[in-house]
Design a protein that fits this description.
This protein has 309 residues and is of the alpha+beta class. It is 45% helix and 20% strand. The chain has helices at residues 118-121, 125-135, 148-161, 167-186, 196-211, 218-225, 229-240, 244-262, 267-273, 279-290, 294-308; strands at residues 11-13, 31-33, 43-50, 57-62, 65-79, 82-87, 91-94, 100-103, 109-116, 140-141, 144-145, 188-189.
């Protein structure tokens, strides 16, 4: 199989409302949600499998912690300025706010993912004090580890999630607390050089993710964050690989796809909800990006769901 062509650009995923890792492969058979842990529960577990020579994780970032367990094969991962290859038995930890991407080389890969927001665990002030440096990126996790005990904890979390009862959520949460304790106490360090520009830019992406529905412009954001507009456009392209308008479009359409998949809202409502007051223009943009209009995209999803029953 040849490498699949993709548009290179970083997508910012700000919260648990969009838990799935970004994948270039639209076909859902490459992603299997672990039973019972559904939308709304603040810990997500995924099983994924990709063939060789595939860009399986598009460049993106999010506030949550992402733990990748390699079960078979190899996965080449880039995160911030580091690049490494993880193999079976390795555990990869993606820090909050870190831009990351991944691809297979000449061998396929099977891996599992555990994702959670640190804010979910900060239920009392003492725990908030412990986790705040990680949330602010002044304390970071080691990216690649091999630890039999940590691997055992990850396996127990996935096993607990297969039990379809409400009480199993308590077990999953407790085990994830234990996993977080082990990682924080053993695999964190203070980075020597924190990029102020990267930190400031992350705040801009946070702002965009919260306001993408509105008619925000480079002029408005430049003034809000104290940039010269021309300089901001250059910095934005340098950090994301996309122009500002393309980034906003892709973010809106990603949100629209999620609504098409998980709701029965009308096309005009979804268009308005993601920042397109004109549903005709929304349909045109959606078709140009994904090859089909939103109505047909939803119909294809429904047909696939019925055929799988």
């Amino acid at each position: 199989m040849t490498t699949m062509e993709t548009k290179r650009g970083i997508i910012h995923q700000p919260s648990l409302s969009s838990n799935s890792p970004l994948s270039v492969l639209e076909k859902e058979e490459h992603l299997t949600l672990t039973p019972y842990l559904q939308d709304g529960f603040p810990i997500s577990l995924l099983n994924l499998e990709y063939p060789s020579n595939t860009k399986c994780i598009l460049p993106h970032q999010h506030t949550r912690i992402e733990i990748i367990i390699i079960d078979e094969g190899l996965l080449s991962i880039s995160t911030d300025e580091k690049q490494f290859v993880a193999q079976a038995g390795d555990i990869v930890i993606i820090n909050s706010g870190a831009i990351h991407e991944g691809e297979t080389k000449n061998i396929s890969v099977k891996y599992r993912v555990i994702m959670f927001e640190l804010s979910f665990f900060a239920i009392v002030q003492q725990i908030r004090d412990i986790l705040e440096p990680i949330q602010k990126y002044s304390l970071v996790f080691v990216n690649l580890i091999q630890d039999a005990f940590v691997l055992e904890l990850c396996n127990k979390i996935f096993l607990a999630a297969t039990v379809q009862s409400e009480s199993s959520l308590l077990l999953v949460t407790g085990l994830t607390y234990q996993l977080l304790h082990e990682l924080v106490s053993t695999y964190t360090y203070f980075p020597k050089n924190l990029s102020r520009e990267a930190s400031a830019f992350s705040q801009i992406l946070d702002f965009i993710s919260e306001n993408y529905r509105n008619n925000i412009t480079t002029s408005f954001i430049s003034k809000t964050f104290g940039y010269n507009e021309a300089y901001f456009c250059r910095v934005f392209k340098k950090n994301t690989g996309l122009s500002f308008s393309t980034y906003i479009r892709d973010l809106r359409l990603q949100k629209a796809k999620k609504l098409l998949k998980k709701t029965q809202y009308s096309i005009s409502y979804i268009a308005s909800e993601v920042g397109y007051p004109n549903s005709t223009y929304f349909t045109k943009c959606f078709r140009k990006c994904y090859g089909v209009p939103p109505v047909e995209y939803r119909q294809n999803l429904e047909s696939k769901f019925k055929s799988n029953k």
